[in-house]
Every structure is written in C-alpha cells, then in structure tokens.
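#help-structures

NK: newbie question. if I give both the sequence and a SMILES, will the prediction place the ligand too? trying with zinc ion
OV: yes, paste both and it writes out the complex. here, I ran yours:
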Amino acid sequence: MEENFNYEEAMAKLNAAKALTPEQLAKKLEEAQRQAQETLARMTPEERKRAEEEAQKMIREDEQKRKALLESAQQVLGTRTPRFCPYCGTPNSGSNFCPNCGGALK
Ligand SMILES: [Zn+2]
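OV: that's the protein plus ligand as structure tokens.
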C-alpha cells in the first residue's frame, strides 16, 4: 500500500508531458535512441547482453511503479463517499453518514 501518493505531483508530471509538442517529443525520443545506439556500438557482445537484461529489469520496475500509481489513484477514488446510501438508497451529499438512516457511507 502506497501511503505517500502525491496526486498533485502526478498531475504536474502528466501536464508537463502534455505540454510537449509532438515534434519535441519525437526529438527527445530520437535523441534517446541515438544515444542508446552509440552506447550499444561501443559495447562488447557480453556487455550488450547485460545492458539488455538491465533494460528489461528497468521496464519491469517501471511497470510495477505504474501499477502502484494506478492502485493509489484507485484508492483515492475509492475513499470517496458513495453517491447513494448502500442501506436505504438515499442520495448522499458527501457526508460520511447517511442523512436518512445514519448508515456509515465510508
Ligand atoms: Zn441510508
């Protein structure tokens, strides 16, 4: 369970990525690819194999981070009170208890 999920930081990162034009993004990708190719060209086959394994590991870790972020976001959304009381169906205005039957809505 991720306790220190920073929603604002996640949104800021998302907005920063969105602020890039497709041209800027393509340029960044191109540059990263060129650097990777240059690095690979200098490597021995053994080093290359190790680098590939390292890259695979990074991709896996990145996936785990993304999954954790998604789960945190779902947790944030999940802690919101339901729109209707699950006991009597009375619409809820956002409080933690039903205004009609007093049932806990959290
Ligand atoms: Zn109720």
